């Protein structure tokens, strides 16, 4: 009976080096994002400069387990606050509508209407399948060169970093992220990996799944 070949020393060294490189890139990406975006994050509507268009980054009103998603409602509240204090005039909702039964932009639109935002102020982008795609489409499809990004602070930092690297002049308004510690820890770990992925995305600059003709806001 043939014995399995033992793991060679060279293979162990190779794997160890790959893990080390991945960790270094992750650390670099996270430090770079945090350091370069802090001055463009705002927590109070009275302090943020005016932008004609606010880019509301999509999420679902419910979690995968079927519970209410607090991040969804915090983003709606933040967007409504900016609109009602005249810090934005139009709202571009960019999210995932890749399935008939899943429609982030429409869910957010309905929530904004219930918050007193007029439908005439809302524009929907159904092909914002990622933060990167939302920003590229905001620039190339919706013609935006200056934006106020609306999401939670950890998400805003990554979005601002992407915006600066593709030529969008952006600031961001932080929606609340008042959730339990377990949820925060899970999101922190996921965000670390998302920033690493973003690092490679900005190197290779893939085209969004969909572009299409320009839409005037």
Question: Could you explain the architecture of this structure?
Answer:
With 217 residues, this protein is α/β, with parallel strands linked by helices. Helices cover 47% and strands 14% of the residues. It has a single domain, classed as HUPs (Rossmann fold, 3-Layer(aba) Sandwich). The protein has six helices and six strands. A six-stranded parallel sheet has the order 1-6-5-2-3-4, sandwiched between helices. Helix 4 packs across helix 5. The mean pLDDT is 94.
What are the segments in which pLDDT stays under 50 over at least 5 consecutive residues?
none
Helical stretch tally: 6
Helix/strand/pairing category: alpha/beta
CATH architecture: 3-Layer(aba) Sandwich
Number of strands: 6
Bulk shape? globular
Beta-strand portion reads: 5-15%
Walk across the major sheet and give the strand order.
1-6-5-2-3-4
H-E string: HEEHEHEHEHEH
How far the N terminus sits from the C terminus, by CA atoms, comes to 71 Å
CATH names the topology as Rossmann fold
The overall pLDDT, averaged over residues, is 94
Name given to the CATH homologous superfamily? HUPs
Query: Class, according to the CATH hierarchy?
Result: Alpha Beta
Profile the largest sheet: 6 strands, parallel
Summarize the structure.
The protein contains 6 helices and 6 strands; from the N terminus they run H-E-E-H-E-H-E-H-E-H-E-H.
């Amino acid at each position: 009976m043939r014995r399995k070949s033992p793991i060679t020393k060279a293979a162990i060294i190779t794997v160890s080096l790959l893990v080390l490189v991945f960790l270094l890139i992750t650390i670099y990406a996270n430090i770079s994002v945090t350091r370069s975006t802090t001055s463009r994050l705002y927590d109070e509507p009275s302090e943020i400069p005016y932008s004609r268009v606010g880019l509301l980054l999509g999420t679902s009103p419910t979690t995968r387990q079927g519970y209410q998603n607090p991040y969804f409602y915090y983003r709606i509240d933040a967007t409504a606050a900016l609109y009602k204090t005249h810090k934005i005039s139009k709202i571009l909702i960019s999210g995932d509508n890749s399935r008939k039964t899943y429609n982030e932009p429409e869910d957010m639109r309905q929530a904004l209407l219930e918050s007193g935002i007029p439908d005439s102020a809302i524009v929907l982008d159904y092909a914002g399948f990622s933060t990167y795609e939302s920003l590229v489409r905001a620039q190339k499809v919706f013609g935006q060169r200056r934006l106020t990004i609306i999401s939670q602070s950890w998400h805003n930092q990554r979005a601002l970093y992407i915006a600066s690297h593709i030529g969008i002049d952006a600031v961001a308004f932080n929606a609340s992220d008042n959730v339990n510690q377990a949820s925060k820890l899970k999101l922190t770990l996921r965000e670390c990996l998302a920033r690493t992925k973003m690092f490679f995305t900005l190197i290779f600059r893939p085209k969004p799944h969909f572009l299409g003709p320009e839409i005037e806001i």
